[in-house]
Amino acid sequence: MTRAVLSLGSNLGDRLAHLRAAVAALGDAVLVVSGVYETPPWGDADQPAYLNAAVLVADPAATPRDWLERARAAERAAGRVRDPERRFGPRTLDVDVIAVWDAAGEPVLSDDPELTLPHPRAHLRAFVLRPWIDIEPHGRLPGYGWLTDLLNAEPLAGDALELSPRPDLALESTP
After folding, report:
1. Is 80 known to be catalytic?
2. Which residue in the list 20, 59, 94, 125 is annotated as catalytic?
3. Tens of pLDDT along 115-159?
4. Which of 20, 91, 125, 130 is the catalytic position?
5. Residue 1 C-beta-side C-alpha neighbours within 13 Å
6. 94 catalytic per annotation
7. What pTM, to 2 d.p., does this model score?
8. Torsion of CA 80, 76, 43, 167, to 10 degrees
9. What is the phi/psi pair of residue 59, to 5°?
10. Annotated catalytic residue: which of 3, 15, 59, 96?
11. Catalytic: 46?
């Protein structure tokens, strides 16, 4: 497997530092990083706002499970603690594997409960779609369609208006 889109989010501690650390942990696999967006919490409104971004990564040797392991390693490094009682609760870092494409450019599909591909709720989350559009303006979520169509469809159109671009925050330094 060679290419994946990962979604990054943080709403505890130094949110920007957590996102930057995730990008750094992915190292040379990072092809491009989106802008940063500040977003209201999703699923559980009783928590701080998030910073969100998307990353396009590639590694000819990586499998979908490898991307999941790299995501979990970045979360552990950020001190992520999973609260089984609060599924959509606050977190130092959340890294989701959204979609993976194989060496031929075909989307990888998986119904494994630990790694469902594409991500089963990505098409419902403006905080995933909008940053992804930054890095792939003509991108498609496998099985769902064009990112821009998904973002502009109900009920996401309202959610998209709540995302605040943060051009003052960058995940990678410019040369």
Report:
1. yes
2. 94
3. 999 999 999 999 999 999 999 999 999 999 999 999 988 777 667
4. 91
5. 17
6. yes
7. 0.93
8. 90
9. -160, 115
10. 96
11. no
